[in-house]
Amino acid sequence: MEALEETEEVEQTPEDVISLNISDLETDVAVEEASVKSDESDFDWSSIDTSHLPSSYKTNSQQEKELLQLADHFFQQYSHLCPDRKPLFIHPLNECGVQKFVSTTVRPTLLPYPDMYYWSGCASFVCDYLIMERLKCPITPPSSLYSPTTILKYQRGNCFDFTVLLCSLLIGAGYDAYCVHGYATLEMCSLDQTQELCPRLRKPPEVPEEEDPNKYRIKYPLEPQSQFELRQKAKKEEETESTQEEENEEQVVVEVDKPKRDPLHGLRVHAWVLVLSGKRKVPETFFINPFTGNHHSTTDECFLGIESIWNHRNYWVNMQDCQRGCKDLSFDLSDSFCWEVMLAESNEPSQLPTESPKKDTDDMEKEEIGMSFEMPLSWVAQIKVSCREYENPFSRGKKEILYDKAKQEKWAAYANRDGLVERLTVYADSDRTEELEVKEWFKHREDLLYMREVNKQTQLITDHFRPGHPLLLKAHSYTSLEPETGHTVEFYHTARVDGLWKRFENATEMTEYFEGREDFLHMRHIEFGKRDQEREKAAVTADANPRPIVQIKEYFHRNPEKPADEDIEERIFMVIDDVIQLTYHLELHDTIASKVVFCRVIGREKREDEIFLSRENTVKYQPWSSEKHKNMRHLYDLLWELRAEQKDLKQQVRDSEAEMLNILMVREDEEANIKLSVSIYSTAKREQQHE
């Protein structure tokens, strides 16, 4: 009996459980409201000056009053037929305290800037120009909706303000865009991207290889498999299954770092933009998060439901089930079973049934008005963005975004003297303490540098240049601008006469890569010896004390116009040892290549203009050559040509060394005296320079 009495005391009724859940929910909401007030204490919307605003902001026209009556009637019907659903966001107050229908707050505008003609440019401008403010209550829509002009003036707003401004720009650019009132996750509502991968680090999706459509191709049999190996593999799988429990216990410890479950999950109000396919050749319907400017699929799990959508012409209420988020939603707005439209299109009345089968005279009059009513023009003044505001979108000087193990920083053009506009720092840990890599992007630099990568582990710096550099540079990798410290330079080879596209040089070697040459040369490798120590101690310059050339190797592609045993594949000049070695290409079915080696005669002094040829200093293996290529006269002519080419090659190597020194001097001067170019279309910057 005592045990029964204790259980009766512990048990709670369902009403008590519900009241406890509601009280917990209220405490969570109260905590968030307090945090929002503390975060936004630096700006007071109630103190803004509205005296200069046009009369359309302060009063309603007769057509707007009729629209508000229709909206009230629509809202009453909706509340009666759907009592379990949240109230509609349909006619909030504007900055002057006047009720305005949400569709009339959308002002389609096309700004006179090339990037603003595309959705990506509009989205990036809105998310960069405005400062995000969280909703005062996370589970209810705001009581007011300010005009896009006021939002642009003060450069801040909540998700609804972001959405209306972005939708106005997208509709003006010709997109079929709509404002969405719905529900989203905590991370999306609070602009928390610390658990997401930075877009700059995302790899492009791999394109699957197309299968051969030829049905007559040969189908090769599958490779035979050992039954013993299959049994061993099955045993290993059983062992792994037995150890899964231990691994799960370890995973529980790892999951502690993951964010806790949101108590308001599914209740957090959010607003975003819906872009339907069709107009502007949009292939597929997608969402745009106005806080980040990123596009999302309509099946994204971050979007948990939709209450209503609207544009500058109409208002639709979602009548579909959102238990699985937005995955199963149909966005065919002409389907009256999925979407309830407020202003009936094509003279069709609203599909919402009335309270009773007998319609009152007032309802009949309102319905007749709804059948022929047209949306009034927007009460918002023309949206204008000056050149200065467009080119300097960051109100706080820069924008900082934190991602998973990464930090992204953005600046306006000309904000930094070196032209820096963006920096991405990649970290080794989630706390962002140990730097792995830093990427920087530049604009308007006269040296045409547009990106720099710095590996913090190896201190390797890689500069990337746009086409048009005086030295035809494409990329330059280095750890120091001092000569012979390890430099890799890439060129725009189509603009060079020699077809050089890459060169690597350090203290002991130099390697050059070519492309598109008539002589089919594709690589040259040079080995250097040590300098004269006495001259180096005497502080003689590098030009006066060059590095001795030990060996030069050249590699050639196959020339189809020549026989294989006459087409050189590899050519080696051992300068100090006075040895020349030639290796020829192979025919299709050959296995051993033809070779010719010219050696120095032992005991004979070397003279520059003298060529001494004998069977002692010539080693040849040409099994496929004709008889004329095996006689001494042909070898003598070949050696004469090689001596002349060796002399030219040595001069080319010295020219390459001089070119590398010139590149380093120019780059050092460019970094010491950075200059930014001003476009003729940048009126704001030119006015600033003129002042």
Automatic annotation (TrEMBL):
One of its GO terms (cellular component) is motile cilium. It is found in: Cytoplasm, Cytoskeleton, Flagellum axoneme. The keyword Flavoprotein does not apply. Its main location: cytoplasm. It comes from the Eukaryota. InterPro entries: CEPT76/DRC7_peptidase-like_dom, DRC7/lobo, MORN_DRC7, Papain-like_cys_pep_sf. Residues 269-342 form the CEP76/DRC7 peptidase-like domain. The keyword Hydrolase does not apply. SUPFAM superfamilies: Cysteine proteinases. It holds the Pfam family CEPT76_peptidase. Residues 239-252 have a biased composition (Acidic residues). Residues 396-679 form the Dynein regulatory complex subunit 7 MORN domain. Keywords: Cell projection, Cilium, Coiled coil, Cytoplasm, Cytoskeleton, Differentiation, Flagellum, Spermatogenesis. GO terms for biological process: cell differentiation; flagellated sperm motility; spermatogenesis. Residues 229-252 are annotated as: Disordered. PANTHER family: DYNEIN REGULATORY COMPLEX SUBUNIT 7 (PTHR35249:SF2). Belongs to the DRC7 family. This is Dynein regulatory complex subunit 7. The gene is Drc7.
